[in-house]
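Quick one: structure for this chain?
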Amino acid sequence: MAKPPGILAGLIGAGIQASRTPALHEHEGAAQGLTYLYRLIDLDQLKLDSTALEELLTAAQYMGYTGLNITFPCKQAILPLLDDLSPEARGIGAVNTVVLKDGRRIGHNTDCLGFAEGFRRGLTDVSRQRVVQMGAGGAGAAVAHALLSEGVEQLTIFDVESERAQALVDNLNQHFEGTRARVGHDLDSAMNSACGLVNTTPMGMAKLPGMPVPKTLLRADLWVAEIVYFPLETELLKEARGLGCRTLNGATMAVYQAVKAFELFTGITPDPLRMTEHFHSLGN
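Got it. Here's what it folds into:
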């Protein structure tokens, strides 16, 4: 297959200046012999919000962008602006990658694959009986699908917007046999009976410090997974590790969602090991 003459890609989201995604894509592009430019389209810096998505998509098409990654808070807001969705994106109800080709906008979801890969690599033998998930946004939807696909028996989802949590639970219970997902109402009770905790909220990011659950609800026999990767050691992971919990940081999800997005943008299969090594070379 002939290599594309050049790739112009970007990331749309809020507060994304610390993102490692541009470096991941450009470094792998160079290794593959591609001219590869990856740009940040930061809503905060542009003083915009998700209502600007239509204009940004149109501008990207006019400027010849090959594709865009989409992050908080746009993964669900972008859905009605797309021409088609991959089966994964349609099932999950969230998009983090848009391929721009022949005047069409095709939405994909590589977050689900990314989290599942990290879970299999980092927490392969943990108990999957009862898991608490914090957050039901775009990333949360992808992670919830991954958790149920990886055999979690009961997933209790908490979100500050109860309607959003309910919508995600309804979606999950349509796609997976049995009523394995439910909306959480009593965090203390859910945590007391849980074997695992997953944070899919932005809480813990450098720009949003803190923890999604009180420290007092953590205990040594709990495993804890995080999707935030800047910093790699969030306050939640630091506290959990201090108690002796098994933990999973956001690095593998970040790398493997980028691996699949790179393939979608270029048609070339990247080297996951090289991308992982480059990710960690960028510091903590």
